[in-house]
Write a structure and sequence with these properties.
- It is a single chain.
- This protein has a 4-stranded antiparallel beta sheet, with no helix packed on it.
- It is α+β, with helices and mostly antiparallel strands.
- It folds into 2 domains: 13-43; 52-166, Immunoglobulins (Immunoglobulin-like), CATH 2.60.40.10.
- It starts with 14 loop residues before the first helix and ends with a strand.
- It is built from 2 helices and 8 strands.
- The chain is elongated and about 90 Å long.
- The longest helix is centred in the N-terminal third of the chain and has 29 residues, at 15-43.
Length: 168
């Protein structure tokens, strides 16, 4: 058989074939991207604050409260420990001189990194001199944001936000 009479085996690539391959490729890309967008939107609300306008209005007050908190010079030690399926939150407050602080209204929020349905809030009673403790039920392992607030009457004297990883 000569080169001019050789039979070409297989299919010939035509414009229609190229179009179908490109259409299939980009169809898969768009389908996967669509699935990623759907899962991202349905699992994380993306909401940090209820109203960014209100948060902006309160910003100057937060700066002044932070300066007053720094001037107080409190030493605050916090620990979150697993307790079975629950988590124990303990906070120890001391003043500048190292004396325990009594009579505070201590509130904590344990905010899940992804799912707001797993968030926990609690008021911590004073269980020992300057030590406030509570057990939060059904706290999963993973990344959390711990917010600690201490009040005397209606005045917030202390506020702290910390990231932590809870492991069992």
């Amino acid at each position: 058989m000569t080169a001019t009479t050789e039979v070409v085996r297989g299919r010939r690539l035509t414009g229609r074939g190229v179009f179908l391959w490109l259409f299939a490729f980009f169809g898969v890309v768009f389908a996967v991207n669509g699935a990623f967008v759907y899962f991202a939107e349905s699992t994380f609300p993306g909401l940090e604050v209820e109203s960014s306008y209100k948060a902006g209005q309160e910003f100057e007050g937060e700066v002044l409260a932070g300066k007053a908190q720094a001037d107080r010079g409190w030493a605050v030690d916090a620990a979150v420990r697993p307790a079975g399926d629950d988590a124990s939150v303990e906070v120890h407050f001391r003043d500048k001189a190292g004396a325990d602080l009594h009579g505070l209204d201590v509130r904590v929020s344990l905010i899940h990194a992804v799912d707001p349905d797993h968030d926990h809030s609690a008021s911590l009673p004073e269980v020992a001199s300057g030590i406030y403790r509570a057990v939060l039920p059904k706290v999963q392992t993973g990344m959390w944001s711990l917010t600690i607030e201490a009040y005397k009457g209606n005045e917030r004297l202390f506020m702290s936000r910390n990231q932590l990883r809870l492991v069992r």
